[in-house]
Amino acid sequence: MTNEDKTPKGYWIGRVTVTDEENYPGYLKAAQPAYEKYGAKFIVRGGKHDGVEGESRDRNVVIEFESYAHAVACYNSPEYQAAAKIRRANSIGEILIVEGV
């Protein structure tokens, strides 16, 4: 099977600055059911980084999904949207959903 025959994977790219360290873990716990339901695989979850160009955030995350459609569905799911309210209340950041190659 060639690469052209495969459905491209989908990815979330998240960049976050946590503003409330005490309450942010509630987001991580609340998001877990959505991640499990949509088969999320964490490729990058925090860790060392260098902001070599543009504005940098404290925490960077890359999550892989089976497809772009799965990535979008996970983000739009009621499970994730409930968790996102907690994230937004305790952090500043951006999430991009992109299609892989």
Short overview:
The protein has 101 residues and is of the alpha+beta class.
Task: Describe the fold and architecture.
This protein has about 100 residues and is α+β, with helices and mostly antiparallel strands. The protein has one domain: Alpha-Beta Plaits (2-Layer Sandwich), CATH 3.30.70. The protein is about 35% helix and about 30% strand. The chain has helices spanning about 25-35, 70-75, 80-90, and strands spanning about 10-20, 40-45, 60-65, 90-100. The longest helix has 13 residues, at about 25-35. The two termini are about 15 Å apart. The model has no long low-confidence stretch (mean pLDDT about 95).
Strand content: 25-35%
CATH architectural name: 2-Layer Sandwich
Structural class: alpha+beta
Percentage of helical residues?
Answer: 25-40%
Q: Mind telling me the CATH class? A: Alpha Beta
- Radius of gyration over C-alpha positions, nearest whole angstrom: 14 Å
C-alpha termini separation: 15 Å
Number of helices: 3
Order of helices and strands, N to C? EHEEHHE
Instruction: Assign the CATH topology.
Output: Alpha-Beta Plaits
Unreliable segments (pLDDT under 50, ≥5 consecutive)?
Answer: none
Largest sheet: 4 strands, antiparallel
| Count of spatially separate domains | 1
**What is the mean predicted local confidence, pLDDT?**
94
Gross geometry: globular
Strand segment tally? 4
